[in-house]
Amino acid sequence: MSEYRIVTGARSLGGDIRVPGDKSISHRSIMFGSIAEGTTKVHGFLHGEDNHATLAAFRAMGVEIAEDAAGVLTILGRGLDGLREPTDVLDCGNSGTTMRLMCGLLSGQRFFSVLTGDQYLRRRPMKRVVKPLNEMGARILGRHGGERAPLAIDGGAIRPISYRSPIASAQVKSAVLLAGLYADGLTEVFEPHLSRDHSERMLNYFGADLQRLDGGVALPGRPRLIGREVQVPGDISSAAFFLVAALITPGAELLIRNVGVNPTRSGIIDILQAMGGDIVLQDQRTRSGEPVADLLVRGSDLQGIEIGGDLVPRAIDEFPVISVAAALARGTTTIADAEELRVKETDRIAAICSELGKLGARVEARPDGMMIEGVEELAGAEVESHGDHRIAMSLAVAALRAKSEVRINDTGCTATSFPNFWSLLEQVKQ
Ligand code: S3P
Asked: Are 375 and 360 in contact (CB under 8 A)?
């Protein structure tokens, strides 16, 4: 709570930068590398707190993971059945992805384990994974009837299921697929809208035979996974702060290299372009089964738009910073179908409305989103991160267009996903 940052307005903004590795892909590289046969090398791994929680959990289950001076990981895979029972509780810190995906993986292990997390994670809903995993034969108990961590998992014999998830959630889908790796037979997951598909892509990259279905996926159990070289692209969710920073700064021109542009994640680009943002994708290529590009972005006049439906899961982590773009756009932006924002690291709808409101933005909360009326300029104020990395970084971007300085409290949380955010922000400010 003690850490805070003062951010002042930017006259201009520019440069040629890279953002740290993708958080979702970094988690999955450790998980699949650990249960594959042979060695996996991970280049561009995100050395943030969330991913370190996953790393520590797999080391605690007997996986040898070395790191060289350049931050490249070498994982000595132990095969599908090579994990060992941890001798202590596994601490997922702030990381929902660690906890929910591990629930799936641990369901298939013939040992006992307990998952916990920080005060924020222990408030987040877990039934969404516990319910399908219990249907698959896992025994998972937790506080509030399995809704809250700590969660105790008595893993073992897993049955395949065909699961129709009520929410578009990559964490739910991935948890069921990770358990399905240990089932004899075909595990299917259907979701109302397509959520990020990094698990699917990486499973097949490691040798599984996952098939895409209409509205879902099917995974044959007990595949042979073979260790691979993984090139983790820059995280589009981290690039998003710099995309918006450049768009709202007149005259800005910024090149962000090597950003993952997987279509299940690139909703932020579609949204900002629909608002009139000048973003060009250069040198599109594929690395380790994931699409990558360099993004050239220039200061633009933004207009309000309506956002909902399929676009929401494709930009689910970007709504805090999208609301900053909307707060400075001409006209009204409405965000609908985004009730999931209420159960992220914090209730992001409430946090955005209260904190952007303090900066003079005109934001109104709705049960499933927000309505934002653009203004010319924001005001200086003292604001709170709510312990949420993406709220903290979004407020820093908003501060670039504030008349006077903005003090952001409780900023240590940015280390979960973007350890060098503050220095990179200073670097691009001119
Ligand atoms: C993630 C999935 C999303 C996202 C989170 C990372 C993942 O969560 O918000 O930051 O890596 O699978 P949900 O599955 O809850 O939508």
From this structure: yes
Residue 90 · residue 114 · CB < 8 Å: yes
Q: Is the CB of 316 under 6 A from ligand 1?
A: yes
Other C-beta atoms lying within 10 Å of the C-beta of residue 404: 11
Q: What is the pLDDT of residues 155-205, one digit of tens each?
A: 999 999 999 999 999 999 999 999 999 999 999 999 999 999 999 999 999
Measured between alpha carbons, how far is 79 from 98 in angstroms, rounded to an integer?
20
pLDDT exceeds cutoff 90 at 2: no
pLDDT in tens, 373-384: 999 999 999 999
The identity of residue 225, as a single letter, is L
The token duo for 361 is 């933005």
pLDDT digits (tens, 9 = 90+) for 323-367: 999 999 999 999 999 999 999 999 999 999 999 999 999 999 999
**DSSP-based three-state secondary structure for 260:** strand
Residues 34-47 have a mean pLDDT of 98
- Supply the pLDDT for residue 1: 54
Q: Using one digit for the tens of pLDDT, what is the confidence trace for 245-271?
A: 999 999 999 999 999 999 999 999 999
CA 407 to chain centre: 26
**Whether residue 54 has its Cβ less than 6 Å from ligand 1:** no
Classify residue 379 by its DSSP letter: -
Is the pTM of the predicted complex or chain greater than 0.85? yes
Q: Is 235 known to be catalytic?
A: no
CA 7 to chain CA centroid, nearest Å: 25
User: How many Å apart are CA 401 and CA 245, to the nearest integer?
Assistant: 9
CA 172 to ligand 1: nearest atom: 14
Phi, psi dihedrals of residue 25, rounded to the nearest 5°: -70, -35
- Pick the catalytic residue from 118, 317, 388, 410: 317
Q: Give strand pairing partners of 298.
A: 253, 278
Q: How many whole angstroms from 174 Cα to the centroid of ligand 1?
A: 10
- Where residue 261 falls (left for φ over 0; alpha for ψ -120 to 50; beta otherwise) is alpha
**Cis amide prior to 320 (ω within 30 degrees):** no
Question: From the alpha carbon of 28, which atom of ligand 1 is closest?
Answer: 11
Measuring from atom 4 of ligand 1, which residue has the nearest CA? 317
